[in-house]
Amino acid sequence: MFDLILKNGNLPDGRKGVDIAIRNGIIEAIEANITAEAAETIDATGRLVSTSFVDPHFHMDATLSLGLPRMNVSGTLLEGIALWGELRPIVTKEELVERALRYCDLAVTQGLLHIRSHVDTSDPRLVTVEAMIEVREKVKPYIDLQLVAFPQDGYYRAADGVASLERALDMGVDIVGGIPHFERTMEDGRLSVEALCRIAADRGLPVDMHCDETDDPMSRHIETLAAQTIRFGLQGRVAGSHLTSMHSMDNYYVSKLIPLMAEAEINVIPNPLINIMLQGRHDTYPKRRGMTRVKELMAAGLNVSFGHDCVMDPWYSMGSGDMLEVGHMAIHVAQMAGLEDKRKIFDALTVNSARTMGLENYGLAKGCNADLVILQAEDVYEALRLKPNRLAVIRRGKVIARTAPRIGELFLDGRPSSIDGGRDFVPLYEGRPR
């Protein structure tokens, strides 16, 4: 007797008509035509069944604060940082918790059940840290929330930056963060990377740094981060987020940099929505896209995962909590429209991001946690194209959210009465798995 069986689902790897049996929150079997009984059975009707989505880079302490204390008129990264600096001293723990929980509600409906959030440690009150630790505990039954100690104003640049970050880690924050390109000098940035990696090594913690989020091709802190990763034996436990300067670097330098990053086993986290919005602001034309070299990094074997970064905050006035929206933008910005490209993009929203976060028992295999999403699409290609509704979101074998299918009604003579965009408008283009 199983707790739940999903019938007739299509999997991201191309398998079709597969059943998934779940007991005690764990996947017990994945095969065709499971005939055992279950307390609940859901017919996926040939829809895509995926592992739950993962966001390895977000700012939950700032989410849904758009317009407070004012709007970002220029739309730039620096004005966003200045705006957050105005809001941070007056924000309360209660409102931080309330906004974060509202966002988590949205995330669940989108099938987003694993999030890594950077938490600003530059205000010595550390109200942001207290609030996000409380949120982490509140959402624990349905979201895996990791917290990064993030010195937004600079580890050395902020007056209490060094002490505040250490206190945040003492309070129970999971990961060491940094922002070397925002320090006063390149040398201060280099020294901050070294100091923060040393702290991570001493405490046995991972590292996730905002690194080279700039159009300046001479911002090369990722080189230092890779070297310090190797020096302190942190391979596989370090993430470089953004890395937008790589978009502007010359090819010869990058041909040396990427192998160093691969040697250090750096996890790379581009943020397509934010990167395309905030970078290239000083360009007239030609105008740079401002996202790191996704295809080249993937080809070199680095683990590349995508983050949503922001939703309705001082830096970004849009966002929906939908990781497929992130992947949709990545396809366009990285110019990865091929079938294999799209499969890699989907992996960057799921399995790659789970690897970045070090999630245990994540996946679609026997013995993995039953954290699943049924989408109103037949495969990963259509999921990325349509950004479809999540028909069911399952956490440890229990349905925790449902969304009705998006069906359009038609009132046209001689035409169908309705259309299901995830089924009735699916082209059979050459090479697409049938």
From TrEMBL:
Ranges of residues in domain Amidohydrolase: 40-400
Pfam families: Amidohydro_3
Protein name as catalogued: Amidohydrolase family protein
